[in-house]
Amino acid sequence: MFMAALFAAVFILGTRLRAAAEDFPIYFPDSKIVVKSETLNRTTYLPIVDIIQHLGLPYTDALALETLTIRSGTFRLVATRNRALISINDQIVLLQSPILKENNRWLAPMEFLTQGLARITGTEFRYRAGSVRVLAGDVRAPELVMNAQDLGPVTRLTIRTGIAVNLDVQRDDQNNRAIVRIDHAPMDPLRERIDQKDRLVNSIVFNDSDGEPKIVLETTDEAGEIKVTAADGNRLFFVDVLRRVAQVTEAAPPADVPAGRIDAPSPERPERKIRVIVIDPGHGGMDSGTTGPSAAEKDLTLIMARRLRTALQNQVGATVLLTRDSDIALDNEARSAVANNNQANVFVSLHIGFSANKADSPSSIFVMQEDFGGAAGAAESGIGMFLPWYLGYRTNRPASGRIAALLQEELTKAVPGWKFPIRKAPLGVLASATMPAVVLELGNVNNSLNSQTLMDNAFQSRIVTAIVNATLRFSELQAPAAN
Ligand SMILES: [Zn+2]
């Protein structure tokens, strides 16, 4: 009596908490079915008859008896309306929620599949609480991991997949939405959505309700172009949402500048060849870089990069993007992709040096090693393989050398006593860059005097000014002939 009363109360509550029917895919090894699930009293219900029809199982829907009987081989499963149990060959299997019949549709909770249908068909049904799909039998669903970062003028969605896939981006600008389709079904997302809300993105949600995996990005009015970079044999993707105002390709004539564009060059300022500069603060997150008695490389590079951003924006009039603007880890591909995707004219990766000799204050300006690029070279130097299209540094080799020489001149003037030799090395972050690119390594973090100097405000200003001057001179070299 008590149970019946409790049951009635729950059931009334359940009908009140009814949610709209939702598309719910069930993936089998060779087929899939999308059914209409319903959420009642926080329990996901699936329409049984749709599923057993898809499985081709004979069944009897005895209206008068309010029972549903399903046969499979020697098994007979009987479900009864409003009962939180089923019987299989007269053995009782308890369910956590009752079987329902609404509008002539039989609705069952998930255990009906995982404990009922699974037993009579020998097919395993896998369901993860909170997810909105069922994987049946030995269907394989590669893992999908999403992460997002606010990089200032760019919001980057990083997608890692367990197998190689292709992505296709479709824009729905009227609804501020971009849909990234994945050409493999099913996928197994680690998280159904990621909490990302910033100036460019309102939400990022995985959705395969129609049986087609995709990631839906709700974007803001500020979002402009979306660029996708594939890496790691199409198992790693960077989906970059660019701010609308940063329309910064060299080819775009000023006449095309839309009204309200914030970054439009003022008429007084001469058109410069350098419109986008990407500064890469080395290391970050778990990777502290070199650490000395009073500072970690990852913190110093970020401080310097932020100061450089302000100075370069004000004095060069360029859009300056940082590869990271917080203490996060990024791999080389992610760093150069920020520069490549934004068609940067200059890429500077900032590092702090380290020498075991505490008296040293070695600085270096690195450009990409010239004869590097072959797979053998990559293997020998132990820095891994680069994708063929990443070898973009080759065409910019002379320009990288020019900016390195200008940096050397300006920095030597700015910091008397310090030497800034130009070195060549097969650095991954440079190999991937398709524009003039250098790595600037400053000082010796292990030299306590050096380390304090690097954190000194006035010293940082001198370095920043030197880099700005070198960039301005480089810009003059790049400027088109006056006509
Ligand atoms: Zn470093």
Helix content: 25-40%
**Total domain count:** 3
Task: Bin the strand percentage.
Answer: 25-35%
CATH homologous superfamily of the largest domain?
Answer: Zn-dependent exopeptidases
**Through-space gap between termini:** 96 Å
- In CATH, the topology of the largest domain is named Aminopeptidase
Estimate the global geometry from the Cα principal axes: elongated
> Rg, please?
30 Å
Overall pLDDT metric = 83
Helical/strand content category = alpha+beta
What small-molecule ligands were found?
zinc ion
For the largest beta sheet, what order do the strands appear in spatially? 9-10-3-2-1-12-11
| The top level CATH class name of the largest domain | Alpha Beta
Uncertain stretches of 5 or more adjacent residues: 1-16, 246-270, 372-390
Query: Count of DSSP E strands?
Result: 28
CATH architecture of the largest domain: 3-Layer(aba) Sandwich
Major sheet size, sense and barrel closure: 7 strands, mixed
Structural commentary:
There is one protein chain. The protein has 483 residues and is α+β, with helices and mostly antiparallel strands. The chain is built from 10 helices and 28 strands. Helix 4 (297-316) crosses helix 10 (457-478) and helix 7 runs antiparallel to helix 10. The chain is elongated, with a radius of gyration of 30 Å. The structure holds zinc ion. Zinc ion binds next to loops.
Offer a quick outline of the entry.
This protein is an alpha+beta fold and 483 residues long. It folds into three domains: 2-136, Copper amine oxidase-like, N-terminal domain (Copper Amine Oxidase, Chain A, domain 1, 2-Layer Sandwich), CATH 3.30.457; 141-245, Immunoglobulin-like, CATH 2.60.40.3470; 270-483, 3-Layer(aba) Sandwich (Aminopeptidase), CATH 3.40.630.
